[in-house]
Amino acid sequence: MAYNRYRYGPPALKSSVDVQLQSAFSDGNWSAVIRLAAKRFATFKDPYYEAIRVSTEAQLQGTAEKCAVLVHVDELVRSKKTPDINTLDLYEWACQDFIGYEIDFAETFGPLRARWVKANASSPMASSCLQGCLEQWDLVSAQQIAATLDKTYANTTDRRYMFWNITLTFLLSCTEASRKVYSLLTVRQLQKAADITENSEKLEKTDRGLLTEEEVCLYYRVLLSHGTKEEFLARLRSPKLGAISQLKQGHKLLFCECLDALETWGEWDTIYELCRDALKLGLDGSTTPFFVCDLRIWKRFIAAATEATNADAALDEVQEVLKQFIELKDKATPMYKKNISLALLETTFRLPSTTINPDHEDTAMSPKVVQIGLFLDQYYERFAAFDDVKGYVAELGYEEAKTFLEDVLPKIPGENPTKAQQIIIKALECRLRYTLTTCPQTLSPHPTVVEGTDQGKPFHCRVCSNLAKSPCEGCLRKLIIDAADAHRQITSDKELLAAIPRLDRDPRLDLALVMGNSLLKLSGLRPGLPNFGQSLWQDVQPGILLQAVLLLDTQLKVTPKDNGLRLLLVKLYLLFGCASYAHQLWAPLDVKRTIQDALSPLFFDRISSISPGLFQGTRPLMEPLRAYYTQSLRDPSPVRIWDAFSSGSYTSILDMAEYDKKLRTSCTLVMTLVEERRATRLFGGKLDADIDDHILATDIVEDTTLVHKTDYGSFPSLESANGPPIQEFIRLGPGPSNERSHLAFLAEQYLDLLTYTPPKDYKPSKAAEAAARDKAYALETLTRINTSLTDLLHKPSTPKLLTPAETNYYTALSLLSALVLTAISLPKSETSIPKIVSQTTQPLKTTLTTLRTGLLSPKSTVPATTQQAISSLCDMPSFASVRDVAFAVKLSAAFVLSHHEKETARDKSGKSGLHKEVVAEMKALESAAAKTLGEAKGHVGVLKGVMNESGWLDKLLDVVLGEEDREVGELTEKVSEIVEGRGGAEEWAGKVVDGWREGVKGWGMVKFE
Amino acid sequence: MANFRRFRPDDLNKLSKCNLDPLTETYELSFYLQYYAKWPSLFQVAEDENGNIIGYIMGKLESSPDVYKFSEHYLPWHAHITAVTVAPEARRLGIGKLLTEQLEAAGDAGNAWFVDLFVRKTNYKAIKFYESMGYSIFRVVKEYYGDHSTDPTQDSEDAYDMRKPLKRDVKKEHIRADGEKHEIDPTDVW
């Protein structure tokens, strides 16, 4: 990244400089400044004027003038003398465009500033030098400056110097090769400080002990990273720096952080003691009563008790503490009241069955069931009631669950419930029944092979007593019917409709989600679809899936503010290729600025393969994302890091550094770069630069672990923890991953190499030498790309992280890079052609044939049925991979053949061209690719024709709701009722058809030649 | 269902429950990190059991620049609530109140005189909420907001500057009963 310290202007000149020169400088009148500075230097012999001249010359356009300052900086670095700070400022300003490119700050200005501070440690400018090094993230120089400052200001009231030094040494220990030295140094410095604190009766600001919460937490962070577990545990119990002691001072951070560490180590006894003591602080008045009354603390307390050495006694004590909090409950805010109720529920579920049911009575109405009932008595009307109890209900045994749903839940609103209360319970019941369909206890194994025939139903459903798959289709059908009836009941009852605005949550939304999710499952949708070479619709019943979408879309009109429902629909529309409509639904979510990194993959991941036409809008599609990263990663240092240093927020420094590192290596960032480039290539556009040279790709190298942080938190989650969450069902392939992002990045690097054209004015005088250099570069790049692609594809985890289409594409690139490498390195004189050529060309030809026959040929004729047409429209990502593979083959062949032609033209001796068999193979591949591309273009033409046919609305509605005047099944009838029949669904069908038409139109603009 | 703790930058990847709500503004990264860097104890979050952020408060400790020391509008050392939000699913549980109390406690720990905040004059629900927590109107900032939340024909809206005295203000010198009568210009707010 470019250096930006002087983004807002040059440094001020020394006050001793005369007014004439000062004003010329501040006016940016560079020629006057150069003239005057030279004159002053001749008169006063002060090198500062020479520095002004040199720095100002760097503002001119000429390369020689611009670069002269580099020589002066180099001289300063080599001289080992203490530089003048004002000269340094000027030189840094002059070099701002070179830093990070021609100049490495950490080898020039950083050490120069450190050298200056060493000689001028008490100057107020010293902190500014530290800031300068931090802005460049030159940790070595920054640490040296901090160490000097610490030494100079030891035992003063400004404690920051000591902790700057420690923090920077720690940061270095996490990055440098000499990690051991730095880590030892940090641990020792902090141990000494901790001992001073422990041994002082009252610590003064001038003492070099640990005083503030930030200082204490920094110590524990360092211990956790570089110290021993024993040391950590011992200090955690210490009288002054222990977690409980810190809590008494109102410092909760250490307590929260240490529990995470202890859990990783499985130190349950310590967790148990700490949670107990922390909670008791609230009871005995040492802290406010509910200071640590978080559900997470309770859950850890209970979990630790079950794991404790003496679990029985520990669990008794848990109950005793909980009892005391229950007595205080009336004084608590609703949040803590609820946490205490949930803690009681958690305790009931974690106690051994012998404790909660010592007499082994009939377990159906077990204490667990009773406790869920008691909890819901208080909270069933609240928004989060379902999420609060879902996990517990999923843990119930079958008989318990049955009793809960049949005997407990209906009685919760009391004897005379209002209509609204009844419907809330109904919606809750439907949601919980859905959750139970995803739980193994509702199914018992059943022999699936009867008389030698596989019945395909390996379970006996304990709920409906039918043979079933998982989930039970019979139960899902019943659920849809029940939810639809309840939904209908609401919409036909004015009293209920009037009551809805007063409720925490619209029950129609919950019922629609139950119906929608059930229909999705019934349609056959499951994680990992579609398979390559197959359309999604070969595994899924399109009518039922589209019913789910129609139903959920209808609900969105009623509850447009529900973001979970909206996100669900965005993913569903993307799944079946209706991207322009998905984009319309996505836009109101207003995903912008900071939340883009976590949320944008929900819409933009793989978008160029789904609908390249979206990139043809008036505003570049990915611009907000690109702008966010450009703004946030503008400087080499983490955003606002100096603020954290100057405020003494040491844990913030560590966290901000970590966050910055993750942001620079984010899968979403790679997605932003790749998707935009892929779209540009699809339309035959020109890319400004290679992906390697992109300013946002600076930190992405081969061994970088790319981080994905997609936020699925807002998705409605009816599933239990026994199966995958809903987003995995409706996502077009696996989510972002390190492997896929690297593969996508490598693919771009490969294509960059193939499509590189030198500038027009590049005419090397020694053509042979230039050609040899170009060839060496190409060979080196190809070797690197091929090795990386092969390594990634051979990782056992990779296949699960890619769609089959992606696996196919990256495998093709791996073969192509190996082929091109061999082709241009094989001497023409070689008598026998290496096996690698046939080992790569043959699979490539087979791949092209398979793609053509599997994905194009049958569809290049007009689809016979609407479902076949829909199948093609939905499967554009597979189609995109055909185009990608064929285009990569075409470019690879062109690269090799062009190399051959250039070599033949350059070297008239005839020795330098490529092996004739290689040339022949490449021509054959080129021709196969051209054929595939031609057919792919034809396929788009066919789809265009299909979409231009009339009657699409009716055709689509026939698939979804059945043909008019024909009898339909009960489910379709129920869905039809909710969406108000074909009339009600027409607008939706119009949007879907328009979405497909837009998609095909976009593909029509894609280049296939 | 909620856990209260100090914000950490990774929470920015779990904000969807709060920030997809149209009433919650999403800022640039530097804005969040500025608060985390300078006033980490005044940036608190409530998270659910899955780590999703369901509420947060951002605040700061500051005084007006020294150059205004002798102005009648000078603000002495105080805590300021910049943003407080609770996800729709977590409302009516007192999470906003708890977050605000935590910021007040941090203000007390930082020896602030009072906590203040700005709220739209028409945001009756929020005003009532703050009043229930002991805040009162200190002054009216005329046309503070560049739009109007309820009346599209207007291009500005007044703000109430509300305050609650902290422990340091033993004599309650930094609040007044007739705040609604004290109108100031937005340029007098620093």
UniProtKB/TrEMBL annotation, chain A:
InterPro entries on file: NAA25_NatB_aux_su
Pfam families assigned: NatB_MDM20
Lineage: Eukaryota, Fungi, Dikarya, Ascomycota, Pezizomycotina
Record's protein name: Uncharacterized protein
Family: Belongs to the MDM20/NAA25 family.
TrEMBL record, chain B:
Protein EC: 2.3.1.254
Keyword Signal assigned: no
GO molecular function terms listed in the Swiss-Prot or TrEMBL record: protein N-terminal-methionine acetyltransferase activity
InterPro entries per record: Acyl_CoA_acyltransferase, GNAT_dom, NatB_acetyltransferase_subunit
Domain of life: Eukaryota
PROSITE patterns per the UniProt record, alphabetical: GNAT
Keyword annotations from UniProtKB, A to Z: Acyltransferase, Transferase
Region (Disordered): 171-190
EC class (word): transferase
This protein's record includes keyword Cell membrane: no
Domain spans labelled N-acetyltransferase: 2-167
Full protein name: N-alpha-acetyltransferase 20
Organism from which the protein derives: Podospora pseudocomata
